[in-house]
Amino acid sequence: MTTRTRPDIPERRSDDRRVTQLAADVIFLREEVGDLKTRVGGVEQALAANTTLTEGIARDTTFLRELMAEGRGAINFLCRLAAAWRFLVRYMLLPLLGSVLLIYYFTHGYQFPEWFKGLAEWVK
């Protein structure tokens, strides 16, 4: 059986230097792919170990995260309570106390009560 060759394509021989170079390149690429597979396998193992460690940390800190969520609700409640207290003092108690003191001042001979005078001295 004879093989036909096309006249426009030169015949290749096994001793051609280009074939030798191509074979060397294929061998080199096979070795590089093997090295890459080894490195990827190492990275996958490290990633699996890191994932296991991260899952363990997540399990261990679940209690703290739940406690912080509950604490956040308590802090919000206390902040709202403080805002309500400020509102009461600023807009209700102080005006009411001022009105009562003015009434006392005018009805008692233009004199403030002794406790108010002591308070005024203590604030200075």
Task: Tell me about this structure.
With 124 residues, the protein is mainly α. It is built from three helices and no strands. The protein has helices at 17-60, 62-107, 114-123. The termini are far apart.
The strand count comes to: 0
Main pleated sheet: none
Structural class: mainly alpha
Query: Element order, helices and strands?
Result: HHH
Tell the overall outline: rod-shaped
Let me know the average pLDDT. Answer: 85
Amount of helix: over 70%
The rounded Rg comes to 45 Å
Quickly count the helices.
3
Top keywords for this entry?
124 residues; mainly alpha; 0% strand
Overview in brief:
The chain is mainly α. It contains 3 helices and no strands. The N and C termini lie far apart (about 120 Å).
SSE arrangement:
Blueprint: H1 17-60, H2 62-107, H3 114-123
